[in-house]
Amino acid sequence: MFEDREDGARQLSVKLKPLKLRDPIVLAIPRGGIVTGAVLARDLDAELDVVLSRKLRAPFQPELAIGAVGEDGEVYLNHHVKVASGADQSYIEQERKHQLGEIARRQKLFRAARFQAPLTGRSIILTDDGIATGSTMIAALHVVKTHEPHEVIVAVPVAPPSRLEIIRSLCDQLICLLAPEEFYAVGQFYRSFDTVEDEEVVRILREFAPATQRVG
Q1: 131 by DSSP, 3-state: which?
Q2: Which domain, by its residues, includes 166?
Q3: What is the pTM of this model?
Q4: Tell me, what's the pLDDT at 215?
Q5: Distance between CA 208 and CA 201 in Å, rounded?
């Protein structure tokens, strides 16, 4: 159990500090992941940016992810959940367009705080406040790997064991502090798990943006 996102991130940074990183950058999945990412970036003396991916919601069950889409438009589908939810191709395409619209909105908002950082040849630490279905993290991994980084390290405080194997297969290293068998939601492992608003993401991005890249 973590006190809050900052506590989880501080414990993660202890695991990350011994690693030999090349021009490191922390990429956070907003919105909750930006708080985790800010602590990691500060502790590791690394750059901070966001990577945008959105879950594709199951029909009539918006909390259930049938997959995710990244800001490059690529779709990842959890086919087992997709079949069980009854989502057909028409629904998936409609949901994809909806989530790409939200990604575009966030790009406009967040890139007004800082330009997208270069990723090629760098050590990337991809983080969130936790992993549930893994769909959003997988979509983010696909986006990040198109930039040809030196390495991609996924670092999260908590995730269900069932999702760690596939995440591990898609990155160079995976650091996860808790992997409980009884997993219902990321928030159950935090004593304080307040909602993070867009304004907080923008504030943190502006705080960490290099002076030469500040655009707002």
Answers
A1: coil
A2: 5-52+120-213
A3: 0.86
A4: 52
A5: 11
